Amino acid sequence: xxxxxxxxxxDVEDELSSVTMTAAELKPILExxxxxxxxxxxxxxxxxxxxKEHQEAICEGLRLLLEHYQSADCGLEIKxxxxxxxxxxxxxxxxxxxxxxxxxxxxxxLSLASLETLAVIAYRQPITVPEIQEVRGxxxxxxxxTLLDKKLITTSGxxxxxxxxxxxxxxxxxxxxxxxxxxxxxxxxxxxxxxxxSAADAVAQTSAAEEPAGEDPGEATLAQTGSAIESVSPDxxxxxxxxxxxxxxxxxxxxxxxxxxxxxxxxxxxxEIQAVAAAERIIESADNSIESSExxxxxxxxxx
Length: 304
Fold this sequence. Notes:
three-stranded antiparallel beta sheet; 11% strand
């Protein structure tokens, strides 16, 4: 389906490029392109868009536009800025423009919760708070206050049920904010599904385009391990910095085993050392006692 639509669009573009237009026919097209461009649009860009066969007609169309906007009947003008063309207000009307901008209300920014609540009200109005919360599944009181403050919704009487809850509906500001003529222009559920499907396809294509084409992290790790193993030569020598390194060391020198006593054997060795020291002290004490007894016997046996 998307391929067919793309082909149809390409056919339309080919037909447009094959049609030769005059300067008078290009004039409104150039005006529209200059108006929608956020930055000054260059003549070369216009030629690229409309075709090189229209280059002379584009130059003439731009000249006609400049003359048209220079008349006193127009409050706008086409200015040449930084090598491009831009539509702006005329300097003699800037005081009125400043007066408007000074009292202009900035665009309303809505959170996701506010948009969800506003959508429920727009499609089911008039609707009560319990009915809104039943659809969304969360408390909607604070969001309703925000929407009321922004004048996007208003009260619409009370529902004729027990408790008589307040009904809410959208306002004229809601239509202005979303650029709708009336509520009949709200997109249908089928259109919402098409939009959601298109958005999902666009996100999928963007993710696929941005996904790096690098190798798998596991494969990279295995490759690094393999290169480290290959750096050890068959005779057991490792080459620091890869092949061609000047210094070589053997595998045994690179990995020197360090023997540490097991934690469980420390107490046993200390006990053994203490037992040996005690035995040495006993033997030394016995030797001293034997020597002292021999000395006393020798002194007793001497003739007086």
